[in-house]
Design a protein that fits this description.
The protein is α/β, with parallel strands linked by helices and 559 residues long. It is built from 22 helices and 13 strands. Bound molecules: 6-O-phosphono-beta-D-fructofuranose.
């Protein structure tokens, strides 16, 4: 097998990195501005900017020249990115460790093209589930679907975890201004009883709809929460017969749904070729459809589908997801950055970083290649973030003056969904100011001059100047959209999904399995049995034995 680092294109980038190592962002801007002014050509901003599907990416504040970009694109081409994308879209087994295709793109396929798995077109099944979801959502939204006392539903509680929680939660929050006025949405994921208890407290079982969302319907946390929700419901005057009006399931496992006691007539299915973290486009998106309605959900799918068409048809050098992936590879593999910050300057996107963490790190947090051999290069960075401007008053100190260089994605909508006074102008100003400050920094000379102009004495200047100096040269992307709506949200999510896929193609890893979550699950279930049993344990290491035995002992004392 050709490893990524043994490709000549990788080595060419490595050599180029050395040539580029000492060139700063400010120098790159200065050189490009001089050249464009002399030649009457394009500014650096114009040169490194891409527009597609309602999104505009400014990637000029990165350590790259036209040559870097060319070399990165050559690496993508040599890594068969186009063929690998085609294989995914066409239903090939792109998840070999689980023997499955990954066809989240079929879920939002708005064309009339068939998509085949094992020789069978999956599109009719997808359309049928979408129609059932639409019919159900319309009945709930219009108040035709009644609870057991004859009242319309007012509250929807989604019980799920990971991909069965983060996607719908993020999207319902992101599109809150488009949501139905009567309906409130709640999401319970954590097995900590505080989550379900605090959510159900104050809700009326007679007007609450519970969605139990689990691809496998075997996830411990989700089942524990679903059982507690059912007990809460049955503790009201409701009876078993009323469960059908208040509990629905979203799953691929009809047998387990029936065993839990939910009528499979009230189940919305999907398929094993939909990965959990890619499932928002399937029936897992039910909370979003209930919130925004079937027509807007259709817009959401359309935005993602348009990004699907873009990633397949745009040349690699003008391809948004490919560009984001190549920058990620550039910083992670050639400039040693180990973390990526995502900062949406849009309060409605406040759960977007959490959603991206699962999408990115569960997909590409891998240490073996597709064929099982060890990876010798860095794979996924740690992805994290918070909305701006909050992050500025918390962790941006480290991004500006810490010892790590953290490439940052700023995301901003130009039009506010909540226009109040000057709020949006201030939000935009802060977003643009951060990327400028990160890039330019502030030299010691500038700090000294500013302090002298303010009349500060030499001693104080000497003590403080280094503390007040910003190194700058910190890279960022800025992604702009006109406004955050179902279409642009769909496009934004698909942009990052494909970014993750292209990274995986370059690293030659499988982005669609997640074996790394299994060991903890196995151990938790045997430790749960030991805690239930309450007997002193000796089978673990001394730390784990000690913790378990201490917990058992303390519990005995409390009892
Ligand atoms: O534990 C990880 C994981 O398998 C995720 O990949 C998935 O999104 C989540 O658990 C929930 O799984 P399920 O939808 O089957 O309950």
């Amino acid at each position: 097998m050709t490893t990524p680092e043994s490709r000549p294109e990788w080595q060419a980038l490595d050599a180029h990195r050395k040539e580029m190592a000492a060139t700063t962002l400010v120098e790159l801007f200065a050189a490009d501005e001089a050249e464009s002014t002399a030649a009457g050509g394009r500014s650096r901003f114009e040169q490194f900017r891409l527009d597609a599907v309602g999104l505009s990416l400014d990637f000029s504040k990165n350590h790259l020249t036209a040559r870097t970009h060319e070399l990165l694109v050559e690496l993508a081409r040599a890594s068969d990115v186009e063929a690998r994308l085609a294989a995914m879209f066409d239903g090939a087994i792109v998840n070999p460790t689980e023997g499955r295709p990954a066809l989240h793109t079929a879920l939002r396929n708005r064309s009339n093209e068939p998509v085949e798995v094992n020789g069978k077109d999956v599109m009719p099944g997808i359309r049928e589930v979408l129609e059932r979801l639409s019919a159900f959502s319309t009945r709930v939204r219009e108040g035709e679907w009644k609870g057991y006392t004859g009242k319309a539903i007012t509250d929807v509680v989604n019980i799920g975890i990971g991909g069965s929680d983060l996607g719908p939660l993020m999207a319902v929050e992101a599109l809150a201004p488009f949501a139905h006025e009567r309906l409130s949405f709640h999401f319970v994921s954590n097995v900590d009883g505080a989550h379900i208890a605090s959510t159900l407290k104050g809700l009326d079982p007679a007007t609450t709809l519970v969605i139990v969302a689990s691809k496998t319907f075997t996830t411990q946390e989700t089942l524990a929460n679903a059982h507690s929700a059912r007990s809460w419901f049955l503790d009201s005057p409701a009876s078993d017969a009323d469960i059908a009006r208040h509990f629905v399931a979203v799953s691929t496992n009809a047998e387990a749904v029936a065993a839990f006691g939910i009528d499979t007539d009230n189940m919305f299915g999907f398929w094993d070729w939909v990965g959990g973290r890619y499932s928002l486009w399937s029936a897992i998106g039910l909370p979003l459809m209930l919130a925004i309605g079937p027509a807007q959900f259709e817009r959401f799918l359309a935005g993602a589908h348009a990004m699907d068409k873009h990633v397949r048809s745009a040349p690699l050098e003008a391809n948004l997801p490919v560009t984001l992936a190549l920058l990620s590879v550039w910083y992670g593999n050639f400039r040693e950055s180990r973390s990526q910050l995502v900062a949406p300057y849009e309060q409605y996107l406040h759960r977007f970083p959490a959603y991206l963490q699962q999408l990115t790190m569960e997909s590409n947090g891998k240490r073996v290649h597709v064929d099982g051999t060890a990876v010798n290069i860095a794979t996924e960075a740690v992805v994290w973030g918070e909305p701006g401007t909050n992050g500025q008053h918390a962790f941006f100190q480290l991004v500006h003056q810490g010892t790590h260089v953290i490439p940052t994605d700023f995301i901003l909508a130009l039009e506010s969904l909540s226009p109040i006074g000057e709020h949006h102008l201030l939000l935009m100003a802060n977003c643009f100011a951060q990327s400028e400050a990160l890039m330019k920094g502030k030299s010691r000379e500038a700090v000294v001059a500013e302090m002298q102009a303010a009349g500060i004495g030499d001693n104080e200047i000497e003590q403080l100047a280094n503390h007040r100096t910003f190194p700058g040269d910190r890279p960022s992307n800025t992604i702009l959209m006109q406004r955050l709506d179902p279409y642009t949200l769909g496009s934004l999510i698909a942009l990052y999904e494909h970014k993750v896929f292209v990274e995986a193609a370059i690293w030659d890893i499988n982005p669609f399995d997640q074996w790394g979550v299994e060991l903890g699950k196995q151990l938790a279930s045997s430790i749960a049995a030991e805690l239930r049993d309450g007997q002193r344990v000796t089978v673990h290491d001394s730390s784990t034995n000690g913790l378990i035995n201490y917990a058992i002992q303390q519990r005995n004392i409390q009892a």
